[in-house]
Amino acid sequence: MNIDVVYFARYREALDSDGERLDGLFDSVDDVRKALLARGEGYAMLGEQNLMCARNQELCRLEEPVADGDEVAFFPPVTGG
Amino acid sequence: MQAAAFDPGAETNAMHAANVGVGAVVSFVGYVRDFNDGREVAGMFLEHYPGMTEKALAKIVLEAEQRWPLLKVEVLHRIGALQPGEPIVFVGVASAHRQAAFQACDFVMDYLKTRAPFWKKEQTGEGPRWVEGRQSDADAAGRW
């Protein structure tokens, strides 16, 4: 299955990437996160306690299930307003 | 969202235009400050998540409308480059009576601060830095 991962703000800058397409088997947003964490180095930031995530442009919990073609976003706490 | 500046006074006035049933308008305007967290701020850049931002704001407005009897809700948020003194965000809420308007405006801002995908990057004398999320904002949103 394919998951389109996108990064924002500090994560986007640190990874030097807007996002990427991941091909693999994932049950949840957390599975996607763990696959990225396993790369080490800069991806370690995805282990931050206050990480936020969204599935198909809606905030979700890490346990949120994912399906083929989903867009999964990881970002630091939002700071608008 | 918009890159262009807006006039908070004109936006506030527009909240009761053409609706004489509006008895109360509460508005909030957030501005860029020239100092934050121990450093002078020369400007900032507001990043957002295109697509999700619109959905998140619409959801927050809908939730406010379900909780209080509101006649109009308006949310404007700047994106891109901003200078100190410029307005960043406008929230206007119109209702028949003040209590719903006060509470709903407070609610929309608390939710926007913690659920709308915007990120501030400040330009300071010591270089650029991302603004960190604050626990006090999370606590404020938790009140609702």
From TrEMBL, chain A:
InterPro entries: Beta-grasp_dom_sf (IPR012675), Mopterin_synth/thiamin_S_b (IPR016155), ThiS/MoaD-like (IPR003749). Signal peptide: none annotated. It holds the Pfam family ThiS. This is Molybdopterin synthase subunit MoaD.
Automatic annotation (TrEMBL), chain B:
Pathway: Cofactor biosynthesis; molybdopterin biosynthesis. GO terms for molecular function: molybdopterin synthase activity. One of its GO terms (biological process) is Mo-molybdopterin cofactor biosynthetic process. Residues 123-144 are annotated as: Disordered. The keyword Mitochondrion does not apply. Gene3D superfamilies: Molybdopterin biosynthesis MoaE subunit. Keywords: Molybdenum cofactor biosynthesis, Transferase. It catalyses: 2 [molybdopterin-synthase sulfur-carrier protein]-C-terminal-Gly-aminoethanethioate + cyclic pyranopterin phosphate + H2O = molybdopterin + 2 [molybdopterin-synthase sulfur-carrier protein]-C-terminal Gly-Gly + 2 H(+). It comes from the Bacteria. Heterotetramer of 2 MoaD subunits and 2 MoaE subunits. Also stable as homodimer. The enzyme changes between these two forms during catalysis. PANTHER family: MOLYBDOPTERIN SYNTHASE RELATED. This is Molybdopterin synthase catalytic subunit. It comes from Pseudomonas putida (Arthrobacter siderocapsulatus). The lineage of its organism: Bacteria, Pseudomonadati, Pseudomonadota, Gammaproteobacteria, Pseudomonadales.
